[in-house]
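S.,

Sequence below, as promised.
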Amino acid sequence: MAKLSSVNKNERRKKLVKKFAGKWASLKAIADDEKLPMDERFAARLKMQGLPRNSHPTRVRSRCALTGRARANYRKFGLSRLMFRELASHGMIPGVTKSSW
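The prediction came back faster than expected:
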């Protein structure tokens, strides 16, 4: 089980990302538009720097939904490898069976 503070910090980051997603997208579009003058594009970059650091999507860590483990997660299921194996062995994940040949 991961530290509760780490899990909570990641949840706060997710909220910030959601809150500032539109602003990031609009500023990024302005900064990348080569038709605009250079000073306007530079001003957009400065505004992007002024946004909270944790509001960028790359700051969010993928974690297991059950344990909060940060490593070895399957995106499709939102579970760590350990929980995935345990739940799959008990038949609690639909469509997943242990292979044997």
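The domain at 62-101 is CATH 4.10.830.10 (30s Ribosomal Protein S14; Chain N).

Coffee later?
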